[in-house]
Amino acid sequence: MANELIAVLFIIVNFGLVVLSYKLFGRKGLYAYITMSVIAANIQVAKTTTIFGIVTTLGNTMFSGIFLATDLLSEKYGKKAAMTAVFIGFFTQLSFLIVTQFSLWFKPDASDWAQPHMEGLFSLALPVFTIAGLISFMVSQNIDVFVFHFIKKRFPEDKWLWLRNNGSTLISQFVDTFIFTAVVVMFGLWEMEIAVDIFFVTYLFKVILSISDTPFVYLLKKVNPMDL
């Protein structure tokens, strides 16, 4: 299957799972999906792929689902609920980094086959990507929540939901991409020339993803969750 087709399918599935999580479990479902997404995104971002002839990292789609979830929390439950999601995501990333490092410290048995694969994934790239993700996530998510409510105070009607959603996400995703790229370059995993290309391409994909989630945020606005 072509990467482009997989990418479109992945976007639909990811946003669809956000809707399903909210429908089945309400606010708690969004918190749970954010927790899963930050772990998956920090693993996926270590892999590069080619979509429409452009080299990009994975993880962007999962992170776009996080921004969709926090925007919905802001819209329906307020700033406090959205900030709770931000801190849950931050704590999850930090805990994941700590736990994965412990798994490498154990001396493997002679019958073990997983250690070299875990070392390849967790020993260098993952900690750097996770640290970069921690910093960029915390800063960008705070900006996302702030900008969303800043716009909502001035344009509170439902017809402006697209502006609140896209405006806050596009600004915060730019900051997120810049910080993440800068930290990875600082640790020496990407050369500057490659990093600049990745920055612009990644942000371009995030713009596309942000626009793509607009129908889903209107759908989520109308969903009556089976809140636990």
UniProtKB/TrEMBL annotation:
Q: Which UniProt keywords apply?
A: Cell membrane, Membrane, Transmembrane, Transmembrane helix, Transport
How does it sit in the bilayer?
Answer: Multi-pass membrane protein
UniProt GO cellular component terms: plasma membrane
Q: Please name one Pfam family that this protein belongs to.
A: Vut_1
Primary location = membrane
Enumerate the transmembrane spans.
6-25, 30-46, 52-73, 85-106, 126-150, 170-190, 196-220
Which GO molecular-function terms appear in the entry?
transmembrane transporter activity
Quote the subcellular location field of this record: Cell membrane
InterPro entries documented for this protein: YhhQ
Superkingdom, according to UniProt? Bacteria
Known function: Involved in the import of queuosine (Q) precursors, required for Q precursor salvage.
User: What does the sequence similarity comment in the record state about its family?
Assistant: Belongs to the vitamin uptake transporter (VUT/ECF) (TC 2.A.88) family. Q precursor transporter subfamily.
Cited NCBIfam families: queuosine precursor transporter
By what name is this protein known? Probable queuosine precursor transporter
